[in-house]
Amino acid sequence: MRTGKLRETAVNLSIAFSALVLLLILGAARLMLSDARKSVFEDTRLRAEISARLAGKAMFPKVDLFSLHFLINNLALDKVIKYAVVSDQSGKIRSHSEPDKIGGKDESREGIAARNSRFALTQSFKGPDGLEYYYFSEPVAVGSRRLGTLAIAINGETMRYRLAATTHKLAIIFLAALGAMGLLLEIRSLLRREQRSSAIKSAMVHTVSHEFNNALTVIDAVIFLLEETEPVKNDPARAGLYRTLAYERKSLKNYVKNILSEARMEAGRFKIEKKPLALSGLVAGAVSVMEELMLKKKISFTLDMAKEPVVIDADQEAMALVLSNLVGNAVKYTPENGRIAVRLAAEKAGQVTFRIENSGRGIAAGDIEKIKTEFFRTGEGQAAAEGFGLGLKICNDMLLLHGSALEIKSEPGKNVCFYFSLSVPALKAAETPASARPG
Fold it and tell me: Is the pLDDT assigned to residue 87 strictly greater than 70?
């Protein structure tokens, strides 16, 4: 559950960052488009200046209409330019990119202003088509003699040709950022649906487990009454039946604990409470529960553990579940006449290591990580015994909460060894828990 919250936080931060990026893109787009427009204006202004010089050569000492028309028509080939015109000082149009206007008089406000100006002008006006026009004029002169005026007009529609590349790039960047934000929003929606589904599943698991525990409590009471009212107290056959019932009862309780623990961890409600704990006592308890089944399967068993209590700081319920899962798992998957070896020892300074090794089918290298992190059962495991693949993942999750992890070594077809290490704090004698003291 903590991982789920971290994922949602990461997605929310990514969404906020994407929104900021979108705003930055919009701001940058305005600046880039403004710069692109300025570039078009500067380029048009430069072309008007150069063309005015060429027009001066075509109009002095006499007007060369061919050269003048060639110059104007060459300018008109540029898609950015709406029209180009050269007029003399009287306003007579000597050349125009629209041939039907040649010979007429330019009496437009911008044309008159251009002829009356001694310098280059840039004017803007609303055209008859409703578009914004930009009118760049340049005096046509030879020395100090003014011969006329050259003007180039562009508008918002013709400028799109030059702004198209910049606009397309910005649009692609904006759409990519928008798409990323949309994807992140969808991921957040899926995460929230998953969380709601997980909460419903957790509630269902708790309800079912609660009812299951109630049923087990009733079964415990009935078995106790049957044992108490047994007419023949020392009947070996019936005693074996009671031992089988006790084993199955404990197995069911262990399953319920596993399911509840996993549900609590998913819901973020599983919290460990570390206290001084005699690990050796828990190991002995986990082994004693499985002794009957080991005898039944004729399993050779060895326990290597120091007589002095090994005390660690850990959560008793969590560690008891880890050890019972590991010992129960080993017994379940060890074939008849197989062997199990349990060892609890300080292999490194300041640490105690628990190892349990059993003979059997082993685990393939590719499956080791899966059985620690997923509800996964190997093909060999499914063939050897029934189960749900809960135990080892829960063991690893519990150990991670204690700053450790479940480690696995295996030779397929031969054996498998599960082990983990925990820190041993320096405890004073007075702080040793009562369950760890001899006598």
Answer: yes
The pLDDT of 196-205, averaged and rounded, is 66
What is the Cα–Cα distance from 8 to 16, expressed in whole angstroms? 12
Best CA proximity match to 64, nearest among 55, 74, 72, 73: 55
226 inside domain:
no
Structural domains in the chain (count): 2
The confidence score (pLDDT) of residue 260 equals 66
Give the chain's count of helices (H) and strands (E).
Answer: 10, 12
Q: Classify residue 85: in a domain, yes or no.
A: yes
- Its domain, for residue 13, covers 2-162
Residue 388: its pLDDT value, please? Answer: 44
Mean pLDDT in residue range 61-89 = 95
Give the Å distances, CA to CA, from 383 to 64, 130, 247, 359, 365.
102, 82, 22, 15, 18
Q: Which of 113, 139, 162 is the last residue of a domain?
A: 162
Q: Which letter does DSSP use for residue 128 in this model?
A: T
Assess if residue 350 is contained within a domain: yes
421 in Cβ contact with 406 (< 8 Å): no
Give the whole-angstrom CA distance, residue 371 versus residue 78.
Answer: 70
156, 276: one domain: no
User: Residue 202: inside a domain, yes or no?
Assistant: no
CA distances from 423 to 36, 144, 202, 321, 403 (A): 66, 98, 32, 19, 9
